[in-house]
Amino acid sequence: MTLTTGLSPKCTPTYPVVATTPLVTFLERVQETALETFGEKDFDPKFYVDLSLKFNLSKTEKAFDSLPRSGENGTVSIKDLQEFIATYFDYAGDDLLYYDPVDFVPEPEGFLPRVKNPEVRAWAIEVHSLWKNLSRKVSDGVHEQPELHTLLPLPEAGIVPGSRFREVYYWDSYWVIRGLLASKMYETAKAIVTNLIFLLDSYGYVLNAGRAYCTNRSQPPLLSAMVYEIYNRTCDVELIRKALPALLKEHAFWNSEIHKATIQDAQGCNHNLSRYYAMWNKPRPESSTIDKESASKLLDNSVKQQFYRDLASAAESGWDFSTRWMSYNLSTTSILPVDLNVYILKMELDIAFLAKVLGHKSTMESFLEAAEARKNAINSVFWNDEMGQWLDYRLTNGTVCKESETWQACNQNHNAYASNFIPLWIDLFHSDAALVEKVERSFQSSGLVHAFGIATSVINSGQQWDFPNGWAPLQHMIVEGLLRSGLKEARSLAEDIAVRWIKTNYAAYKKTGAMHEKYDVRKCGEFGGGGEYIPQTGFGWSNGVVLAFLEEFGWPEDRSIEC
Ligand SMILES: OC[C@H]1O[C@H](O[C@H]2O[C@H](CO)[C@@H](O)[C@H](O)[C@H]2O)[C@H](O)[C@@H](O)[C@@H]1O
User: Fold this and answer.
1) Interior CA angle at 174 toward 172 and 175, to 5°?
2) How many whole angstroms from 315 Cα to the centroid of ligand 1?
3) Which residues, by range, are in coiled-coil regions (predicted)?
4) Is the ipTM here above 0.90?
5) pTM here?
6) Cα of 420 to ligand 1 centre, how many Å?
7) Does residue 50's CB lie within 6 angstroms of at least one atom of ligand 1?
8) Which of 167, 320, 348, 526 is labelled catalytic?
9) Is the CB of 291 inside a 6 Å radius of any atom of ligand 1?
10) pLDDT by residue (tens digit) across 103-120?
């Protein structure tokens, strides 16, 4: 990846870092040696930080340091390294056990009642059955000796995305849950929420994923949305009682000093908004060799550290990587993202709703107020009337600053991204029909709407969160937003996109036998590519969105599933 960094601190900030474990640091050394020894072909750096120890760390480190090395670079031979790994480690993923979900039945009662076409119904049942393949529980060994594992000891079973993503991921879980609800697997959905609350209680925020190397960052905050959806189906008040204190903690995290920025508008009004900000300034351990290579041309140490922080912050955004975070250079932490602030607005509305269910009137009122303020902030800072879109905003002061800065039109990013339309997902933005119509028109002509889904952006950068990739979560939020907007035309556009998305997922499944992490929106049945790892299958959120779409729109008997 060719990335550079921009650092323009005009204040004296504190740059927080959450220390990692000695095991993670050691596994990064193994990862580096493995790249030197085995070479780049089929090399996945994440595999090495997912290994678990058979013996204690000091014995393993001693054996590693005693491996014979030759040549100028001190290279370990393939045979010695293979033997060392086989002797001292358990295979990546061995500490996660397949788990039969307690609430799985092959065809649940009342499953997708509006899917009438037999071919589509048979496929939906297959997609539903994939929950069994993706269900995992942390092994007893991890609970007994957590120091031997980078996998974190989560209390409950969960659903993983699939392939190299062996562990639970934060924002993926929202769409997994939407699918589980269509599959009537309420207990599995609640168990996922219990795990995320466990992480929140343990760290003060929900981690990017359930690994020791992810403790320095979160991911798009959708826990409240998960609780809201589950409650709407189950009326489980106990779940809310458990979740609400945790959600208050999460809200404070995303409004903390490092995450908050204040923008003053032309009328002199201050608006608080949030940004991604990872508490880390080194290579991401799961991609350490890649990050070091990307940073190799940066000589100044503080510039390098800021670059690593911006890489980790992009991972926190879930959009790792995208031109959204790169204008002249990589500067994730200098950007106020539209979607993050929509998620936090949703969190505020959800908390108000959940507090009302519990009769906590003052919490409800204060969160309704917070939501109103954020809605105004989103409209003041992100809205671009000429384009009819909400645009990411670049901070001039960049890094951690307390002062507010004055809004400038030129700081909005005018490129079309799917994230520019995520506000549609929130009912609060539907009150003005003329505005919704304008946004819908702008969306239609943005270049993002393609034959087989919504592209992430219009820029073909080679990064995975750019053109021509379409990602299930983005299809879902925009389709759901259009659907709920109340406009007839928007509703039919929503259905049209959902139908084409289902068709391409189906075609790819028939061709490859798998559900994919991302799809190429230009061609039916093509999965996506780009980025720093090979395309993955499984796949949690894609399965979830197909099931949620089929539940919402159904599939008439006489509609063909072929492209
Ligand atoms: O290993 C590289 C990066 O992989 C993850 O990101 C991608 O997969 C996640 C799981 O499906 C998904 O949540 C994310 O949006 C994808 O970009 C991981 O989340 C990153 O932290 C990691 O650096």
Assistant:
1) 75
2) 6
3) none
4) yes
5) 0.97
6) 21
7) no
8) 320
9) no
10) 999 999 999 999 999 999
